[in-house]
Structure prediction request, 181 residues.
Amino acid sequence: MERSLTLIALFAALIAALGLIPKFDLAGGVPITAQSLGVMLAGTLLGARRGALAVLLFLFLVALGLPLLAGGRGGLGVFAGPTVGFLVGFPVAAFVTGWATRAWARAGGARVLTTTLAALLGGVVVLYAFGIVGFAMVTDRSFAASAAIMGVFVPGDVIKAVLAGFITQAVLRARPDLVRG
Prediction:
């Protein structure tokens, strides 16, 4: 129990720390940040339940007003902006990433490949499903227009998924006991 709580808090802190990397605003008020990499890693390294809980802890701290999002943003107002769908999708993305990582690893898939594919499924497909819906609702654009605007972010997130695959395998080689429990 203590180990799980520690890992959940550690990964919430990791996601917050990735917010210190400067953000880049490209389209419609949605920034490019490194925090989605933290969401992917929470899933791949902690598993579905603990990964989602780490992201929920992070979002709770953001809602309390801590400036943990990229660019020093925080507070309830961020949940009414164009990034709301991504924020709401963060814990679901971590959960799906963690679930897929474990399921595909048990099936005997190549570790880097299966972890990368799990990060793509959760951290890109699922996260963008939430992000596009939220963006469309807040900006009053069609889903097609919102998807087209979000398309500019996909290559960067694919790179983050590949990084998550390699980072996860490096961490698990160094600390194979990390995923126990």
The chain is about 70% helix and 5% strand. The first helix runs from residue 2 to 18. The chain has one domain: 2-179. The beta strands are 24-27, 30-32.
